[in-house]
Amino acid sequence: MKQFIYSFENEVNATIKKYKLLKKNEKTLVACSGGKDSITVLYILNKLGYNPEALIIDLHIGKYSDDNLKNLKQVCKEQGIKLHVVSIRKEFGCTPCYAKSLINSKGMNLSSCSICGIMKRYMLNKKARELGANKIATGHNLDDEAQTVLMNFFTCNVDAGLNTGPSTGVIKDKKFVQRVKPLFFSKESDVRKYSEAMNFPVIYDNCPCSTGSFRHEIKDKINQLEKDYPGTKINLVESFLKTVSEIRKNIPKGALKICKKCKEPTRNEKCSVCELFGKIKGFK
C-alpha cells in the first residue's frame, strides 16, 4: 500500500508540473465538498508545499451537508489548513433544492445537479476572487472528465467542452479565477483507494439529491465500456483534448463579457445564474 500511495502522489505531482497548474507563491483555494476527491487534492497539495486554503459551499442538504462539513473541518484542523465556509442559502436566499422547485414550477425541467452546478460555479468564482485567490483547484478526476465529454456529445453541447483540460479558461479576465484539476488523469477508483488508505473521514455515498441524474446513467455505461475495453476513459479524454487544442487556436482573443445584471463574468449578456433565475419573482 505504501508503494501505491507514493505512486499516486507522484502521478498527481507530475500532472501539476507538466501542465504548470500551480506555483508555490500563488494563493490556491481548493473547492471542497467534503468528499474523497476534493479532500485528496487538499491533502496532497498541502503535503507538496502549495499551502492551500479550503473553500466549501454549504448546500444545506440536511445531515449529508452537515457531515461533509464536519469531516472537512477535521481534516483542515489536523493539517493546519485555513477553511472558508460559504452558505449558499445566505448568498442566494435559497438552497439548490428549493431553487429547483421554484424553477421547475415555471415550466423549466432542470435536474438538481444542473441547478446546483450553476449556483456553485458562480459562487466559487465570486468568493475566490474576493479572497484574492490566484487559482481554484477542484477534485475532478479522469472519470468525471470522460463522463462530461460523452454528456456534451449526447446533448449536442460540445462547445461546453472548450474549457476541458487540466486547467480551464480559454479567455483570461481579471474577474475570472482560473481553475485547475490536479486529478485530471487519475482514475476515480485510484482516488478512492488513496482516500481509504489515508483513512480520510469522508462519505463515499452519492449526494442524495443526485438520484436519477443523466451523469449517473453515463457513468454506468462508460464503466461497462472500460471493463470491456480497458483504456476507454483515458483514450476518450486524450482524444477530445487534442480536438479542443485545435479548436482553441481559432478562438479570438479578448475579454469575457460582464453580466448586465450582477456584473459577474459571462460569455453572454447575462450569466447562467441570472439567466436561470431571472423569471422567478423576487429572486436576487
Outline of the structure:
This protein is α/β, with parallel strands linked by helices and 284 residues long.
Write the layout of secondary structure elements.
Elements (H helix, E strand, L loop, with lengths): L1 H17 L9 E5 L3 H12 L5 E6 L3 H18 L3 E5 H5 L3 H9 L7 H19 L4 E3 L4 H13 L23 E3 L7 H10 L16 H15 L3 H17 L8 E2 L6 E2 L5 H6 L7
Parallel strand pairs: 1-2, 1-4, 2-3, 4-5
Antiparallel strand pairs: 6-7
Describe the protein.
The protein is an alpha/beta fold and 284 residues long. It has one domain: Rossmann fold (3-Layer(aba) Sandwich), CATH 3.40.50. 50% of the residues lie in helices and 9% in strands. Strands 3-2-1-4-5 form a 5-stranded parallel sheet, with helices on both faces. Strand 4 (135-137), helix 7 (142-154) and strand 5 form a beta-alpha-beta unit. Helix 2 packs across helix 8 (188-197) and helix 7 (142-154) packs across helix 10 (232-248). It is globular and about 55 Å long. The model has no long low-confidence stretch (mean pLDDT 89).
Q: What are its keywords?
A:
Rossmann fold, globular, alpha/beta, two-stranded antiparallel ribbon, 284 residues
Task: Find the count of extended strands (DSSP E, 2+ residues).
Answer: 7
Structural class: alpha/beta
> What's the arrangement of strands in the largest beta sheet?
3-2-1-4-5
Query: Helix tally?
Result: 11
Count of domain modules: 1
